[in-house]
Amino acid sequence: MESVVNLTRTSRIAGSSPRVFEDGLANCSANRGIVVNMRSMTADLSGVQRYVDQVSARLEDKLERLAPIRPLQGIKGHLWEQCWLPRKVHSRVLWSPANTGPLLCEQQVLTVHDLAALDHPEWFAWKFSAWYRFLLPRLVRSVRRVVAVSEFTKRRLVEIAGVDPVKITVIPNGVDQRFRPCAAAAIDDLRERLKISSNRYVLSLGTVEPRKNLPVQLDAWSRCVERLPTDTWLVIAGRAGQRHVFSNVNMERVPPRVHFTGFVRDADLPTLYSGALALLYPSIYEGFGLPALESMASGTVPIVSNSTALPEVVADCGLTVDPSDSDSIAAAITSLVTSPLMHRDMRERAIRRAHSFTWEKTAAMTWEVLCQASGL
């Protein structure tokens, strides 16, 4: 049975924008000499899938898409990518946009989002981390060009794989235009549906997995909740990480005024961000940190870790904290929630900064690298 299917684009991301090109992007003529590896789009929605969807949408007439005919996880997915995909690519240039690709395709551009499986193998199932510890350094050295989504990711690639920095181009993620401040009526409607009892809440967003640092967030909240106005809550949105990838997370006693929403639809994220006083995102490890950027675009000030890629994204438009220090996180929450002037100033700066990150720029820069790799 055929193991590869050509994809016409059907967006999985709510509100994906139509293809828009900046000046100069269309100079490299459309061709079928560049193929995109769409295996990642058969998985659950995450930041990586959002990146693949948004960038490929803006290059949809310029790339041939190849993906498994059905979702393939684990060893079956790796076999498809390592064995079947190269047979379909032949001598063309392959763009693998999601951290992984076939070792047999040297004419390849690889996008690397993070190296968490190499830097923190203890967070992952051992088979998953062992595979990426084997694959990624070899793949980065063998491909023609590498795209990193942040300077932090580029530095880690150079340190771990020993690759020439000239080979790596940093191209930041973008943010969809649907992430913007929302009307009060829309926010109230969403709060009612998610059973959020107050219009004053700090939002914590992300899958319940070790890197998201949820136990420390809860500890920090317990240290500051009594100093906050009584109508201020911590809202935690997200679902547990995939069992075959992430180790279990042990969450101990939950402090007062914490509400778990469970899974939130992607279409509701802009409104959920927009209604929050702040985004609490002291993640231990991020290759980029798309939720921080999306919150900024939505008019929500982020509180993020002072490490990995998050300071690159937030700059001076949010508060940075030591992700291991509950007191530091508690102090940041307190100062932001109880200082209206500081909150207003940071909110305005956050919105302005977010406008400089667009998927159109990401697509244009990516296409330039693909053209260089293919000699066009």
Structure description:
There is one protein chain. By secondary structure, the chain is of the alpha/beta class. The protein contains 13 helices and 13 strands. The chain has helices spanning 47-58, 74-89, 116-119, 126-142, 151-161, 184-194, 214-224, 269-274, 290-297, 310-314, 326-338, 340-354, 359-374, and strands spanning 5-6, 34-37, 64-67, 93-96, 108-112, 145-148, 168-170, 200-205, 232-237, 258-262, 278-281, 301-305, 319-321. Strands 1-3-2-4-5-6-7 form a 7-stranded mixed β-sheet, with helices on both faces. A 6-stranded parallel β-sheet has the order 10-9-8-11-12-13, with helices on both faces. Strand 8, helix 7 and strand 9 (232-237) form a beta-alpha-beta unit. Helix 9 crosses helix 12. The chain is elongated, with a radius of gyration of 21 Å. The chain starts with a strand and ends with a helix.
How would you summarize what this structure contains?
39% of the residues lie in helices and 15% in strands. The protein has 376 residues and is α/β, with parallel strands linked by helices.
- What would you call the shape? elongated
Determine the N-to-C terminus distance: 34 Å
Overall average residue pLDDT: 87
Low-confidence stretches: 1-31, 242-249
Strand order of the largest sheet: 1-3-2-4-5-6-7
Q: Please describe the biggest sheet, giving its number of strands, its sense, and whether it closes into a barrel.
A: 7 strands, mixed
- By DSSP, the count of extended strands is 13
Structural class: alpha/beta
Bin the helical content: 25-40%
Provide the gyration radius in Å: 21 Å
Helix-strand sequence = EEHEHEEHHEHEHEHEEHEHEHEHHH
So how many helices? 13
Assess the beta-strand content as a share of residues.
5-15%
